[in-house]
Amino acid sequence: MIRVGTSGWTYRPWHGDFYPRGTRDDLAHLSRRLATVEVNATFYGPRKESDYLRWHSTTPDDFVFALKAPREVTHNRRLRDASALVAEFLSSGISLLGNKLGPILWQLPASLRYDPVLLAEFLPLLPAANRHALEVRHSSYYNDQFIDQLTEHRVALVTSDSPGIWPCLSASTSDFSYYRLHGDTELYTSRYTDEALDAWAAQIRTPPGDAYVYLDNTMAGAAPWDAMRLAGRLRDPYLPGDAQAPDAQAPDAQ
């Protein structure tokens, strides 16, 4: 199963474009056009149980949420002494998503270098009952020992595409893969070309197991259109370019 979605769903530039004027529920609209979404709100602070229940009830039965883990763990504590905070997040109501709960994303800050001892302390805190993915942003993670640690704990290594800003690592370390596409030529903003999406579609189809792909070029409204274009390619890899999803074309302004 390959699922393609966006990083978040509440952005002003999407209104009057991806979201038609008068759209009452952004998540409901998005979830009927894409198969998954990455929740950014959980990165900034805890959510209420009512939020998880509302997200569950708003979306189709086969929709999946990936949750971005709290920055208190990844950025403030920088993974140190994180046991209580990880347990608090995992018991904060995320289970109310039921079968719509997908992977949990742990995104590390760009200044955090690879430390095998730190990872050896942190990774066992992630219960096997959930799927976990780790995104790194420092070149020191080009390290075989790091890959071995992720594989031992069945944590997916995020393949992160940025315009040459952060390393783009790729390795099969779990029974699923996780991709974050942050922008083709300009971080968080630029639209992906047909050629770029063709190349990503070919790469995403290669590993065995499930794949979760999130377009994070959200700031100017490209993400949902690019997600639909990429999903079209993955549904029918034999059609070139945008022929897969004629209804998923962004307006010329995009």
Please summarize the sheet with the most strands: 8 strands, parallel, barrel
Q: Quote the CATH topology.
A: TIM Barrel
Order of helices and strands: EHEHHEHHEHEHEEHEH
Terminal residue distance: 29 Å
Written overview of the protein:
- Helix 8 crosses helix 9 (222-235).
- By secondary structure, the protein is of the alpha/beta class.
- The longest helix is centred in the C-terminal third of the chain and has 14 residues, at 222-235.
- The chain starts with a strand and ends in a 19-residue tail after the last helix.
- The protein has one domain (2-248): Protein of unknown function UPF0759 (TIM Barrel).
- Mean pLDDT is 93; it is low at 239-254.
- The chain is built from nine helices and eight strands.
Quick structural summary:
By secondary structure, the protein is α/β, with parallel strands linked by helices. The protein has one domain (2-248): TIM Barrel (Alpha-Beta Barrel).
Features:
254 residues; alpha/beta; TIM Barrel; eight-stranded parallel beta barrel; 17% strand; globular; disordered C terminus
SSE layout:
Layout: E1 2-7, H1 26-31, E2 36-39, H2 41-44, H3 49-58, E3 64-68, H4 71-76, H5 83-90, E4 101-107, H6 116-122, E5 132-135, H7 144-153, E6 156-161, E7 176-181, H8 194-205, E8 210-215, H9 222-235
Parallel strand pairs: 1-2, 1-8, 2-3, 3-4, 4-5, 5-6, 6-7, 7-8
